[in-house]
Design goal:
The chain is an all-alpha fold. The chain is built from four helices and no strands. The chain is elongated, with a radius of gyration of 19 Å.
């Protein structure tokens, strides 16, 4: 059995991005272990978790809200990337450019998904049980 979020392309892309974030985090100096390394990993993880959690919501607006949180976490990882580059913790320019490219692609996908949901007012509800309240 798969969960709904496991079929979402945006979730799959968030996993690929998360893998790259873990790669960059491993390259950081030991002194950043409890600061920048921890921060960027938590933010990247939050992207995938919010996409997943939002997919189980009862409405499109609720899912849209969680996608907004995922987008904010993505922006946090990008800010961390800029700090990493600025401090010259990772100097592999091609790697950092590929990371940035993946972040931009994920941001576009999240925005597109949010736009689709914003144009919808669908609500997903479970089937209601009916009870016979008449006495026998």
């Amino acid at each position: 059995m798969t969960f709904k979020f496991e079929n979402l392309d945006v979730w799959k892309l968030s996993l690929e991005y998360s893998d790259l974030i873990y790669d960059v985090a491993e390259r950081l100096p030991e002194r950043e272990r409890f600061n920048l390394q921890s921060q960027i990993i938590r933010a990247a993880t939050s992207i995938s978790l919010n996409i997943a959690e939002g997919s189980t919501g009862q409405s499109d607006p609720e899912q849209n809200r969680f996608l907004g949180m995922a987008l904010r976490s993505l922006i946090e990882t990008v800010a961390c990337q800029r700090l990493i580059s600025r401090r010259k913790y990772v100097t592999d320019k091609a790697f950092m450019e590929s990371l940035d490219s993946k972040a931009q692609e994920l941001a576009k996908r999240i925005h597109a998904f949010r736009k689709t949901l914003a144009n919808s007012n669908k609500t997903i509800r479970e089937e209601q049980a009916s009870y016979d309240l008449t006495e026998n």
